[in-house]
């Protein structure tokens, strides 16, 4: 008998076969774009601001926006990496049934992916907590720059979420909502907030219709992502997890690969594309 092909892409192909795949991505997908993650093997300890802290008063809002204003200079320059590009190509080849991302960076859409479900929202959008009007982050960045000249160019270390590690934030001027004067917040789900019910329902429906589930770059430490792995397992779907380090879903997976996403996905795409061309 010929030797068993132990390459990661071969193992995934053998398990998933010709099934279309629902993909769930996490922070490990964006690290190759220069966006650090929270829970990777080499990630420093980080305690992000909670929603309850953010709404507690002006001081915490000054702290958040002073750090985020500097960090936006870095985040807004991030570009899709090989994993984003491969997934967009797989969608074009009709090999994916959907894509749910826990990331807020918008890089899947930047790479050309359509119909992405941004489970935790988008950092490039701003929402008013009073009137709920959604606006562009870049427009707020210009307003904050006008109110705080030179602040965005400050030199600082960065936290895993991209925010600058600044302590002297008491003098930072925060911009209110232009429509009602309310408090502005990134249109993302903070720790302590719940994912909107309609978004959860959309994801649940995708899992119900899926033929398999591929998890990329997520430790599945938060229930918002883990719930869909549990749902897929309960349905008897093949589950593959590709992530550096352990995840909370390892015991639910049919196949767990401790590897990088780009290095694992690229050969998988080329292998299937070449096989279809030969056929």
What key phrases describe this protein's structure?
about 280 residues, alpha/beta, Rossmann fold, 6-stranded parallel sheet, 3-stranded antiparallel sheet, 9 helices, about 15% strand, disordered C terminus
The number of domains is: 1
- Helical fraction: 25-40%
The total strand number stands at 9
User: Low-confidence spans: pLDDT under 50, at least 5 residues?
Assistant: 272-279
Topology as a string of helices (H) and strands (E): HEHHHEHEEEHEHEHEEH
* Rg, alpha carbons: 20 Å
Characterize the main sheet: 6 strands, parallel
What is the SS-derived class?
alpha/beta
CATH topology type: Rossmann fold
- CATH superfamily name? TPP-binding domain
CATH architecture: 3-Layer(aba) Sandwich
Number of helices: 9
How do the strands of the widest beta sheet line up side by side? 3-2-1-7-8-9
Q: Can you identify the CATH class? A: Alpha Beta
Shape: elongated
Strand content: 5-15%
Mean pLDDT across all amino acids = 88
How widely separated are the two ends?
Answer: 25 Å
């Amino acid at each position: 008998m010929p030797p068993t092909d132990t390459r990661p892409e071969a193992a995934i192909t053998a398990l998933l076969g010709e099934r279309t795949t629902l993909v769930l991505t996490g922070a490990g997908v964006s690290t190759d774009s220069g966006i650090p993650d929270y829970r990777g093997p080499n990630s420093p300890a980080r305690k992000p601001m909670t929603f309850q802290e953010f709404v507690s008063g002006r001081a915490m809002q000054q702290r958040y926006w002073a750090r985020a204003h500097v960090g936006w200079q870095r985040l807004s320059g991030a570009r899709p990496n090989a994993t984003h590009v491969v997934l967009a190509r797989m969608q074009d080849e009709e090999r994916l049934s959907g894509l749910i991302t826990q990331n807020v960076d918008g890089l899947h859409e930047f790479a050309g992916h359509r119909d992405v479900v941004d489970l935790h929202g988008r950092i490039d959008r701003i929402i008013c907590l009073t009137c709920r009007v959604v606006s562009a982050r870049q427009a707020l960045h210009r307003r904050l720059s006008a109110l705080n000249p030179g602040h965005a160019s400050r030199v600082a270390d960065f936290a895993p979420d991209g925010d600058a590690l600044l302590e002297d934030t008491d003098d930072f001027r925060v911009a209110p909502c232009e429509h009602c004067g309310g408090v502005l917040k990134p249109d993302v789900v903070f720790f302590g907030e719940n994912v909107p019910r309609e978004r959860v329902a959309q994801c649940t429906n995708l899992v119900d219709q899926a033929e398999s589930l591929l998890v990329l770059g997520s430790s599945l430490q938060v229930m918002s992502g883990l719930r869909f792995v549990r749902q897929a397992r309960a349905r008897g779907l093949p589950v593959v997890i590709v992530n550096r380090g352990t995840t909370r879903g390892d015991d639910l997976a049919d196949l767990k690969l401790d590897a990088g996403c780009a290095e694992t996905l690229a050969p998988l795409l080329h292998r299937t594309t070449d096989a279809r061309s030969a056929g």
